[in-house]
Specification:
single chain, 166 residues, mainly alpha, 3-stranded antiparallel beta sheet, elongated, disordered N terminus
């Protein structure tokens, strides 16, 4: 017999303020009552987050991971069939990739990234838009870091160039 643990979910992001009661079964089924099938499990959340991180080449911050968790909870709570199907299809297609050695996973993700980004840009769902926003924020941060490094290198070259009198 599976043991049941009742957990109070953290306040969900995106304007839904009330805490929600969640049942967690020993086999990791995270059920949102009887609201949605298939059930939203912790494994599903983890696998989806892993696919996002690997495909985008990012590491989600604690805040982003919390936002994703809340967004998935909201999707299931609202019975958003399009969002649920997108997540479940993504997780199912990602499972074989998770079994690859890290280097192969990274190489595959790098090759797939342009197509994934194009797909995200053509999508309209809340989850798709959130994932795209993570990509764009990360790209902006990388761009700023690259620009800062280039400026520092140029300043060093200028500082130590023969024409500068140093």
């Amino acid at each position: 017999m599976k043991s049941m643990i009742i957990v109070m979910a953290m306040t969900v992001v995106f304007g839904i303020g009330a805490a929600a009661s969640i049942s967690i079964q020993q086999d990791e089924e995270l059920l949102l009552g009887d609201i949605a099938q298939p059930a939203l499990t912790q494994e599903t959340i983890d696998e989806f987050a892993d696919s996002v991180e690997t495909l985008l080449g990012v590491r989600l911050s604690e805040e982003q991971a919390s936002e994703l968790h809340g967004l998935l909870m909201r999707t299931w709570r609202l019975r958003d069939e399009r969002g649920i199907n997108m997540v479940m299809e993504s997780v199912e297609s990602w499972r074989p990739v998770r079994g690859l050695p890290p280097r192969e996973r990274a190489e595959l993700a790098t090759r797939m990234r342009p197509e994934v980004i194009a797909h995200l840009r053509s999508g309209h769902g809340e989850i798709t838009q959130w994932v795209l926003s993570v990509h764009e924020a990360t790209a902006a941060q990388r761009g700023a870091a690259t620009a800062a490094a280039a400026a520092a290198a140029a300043a060093d070259r200028e500082k130590f160039s023969p024409c500068s009198g140093t």
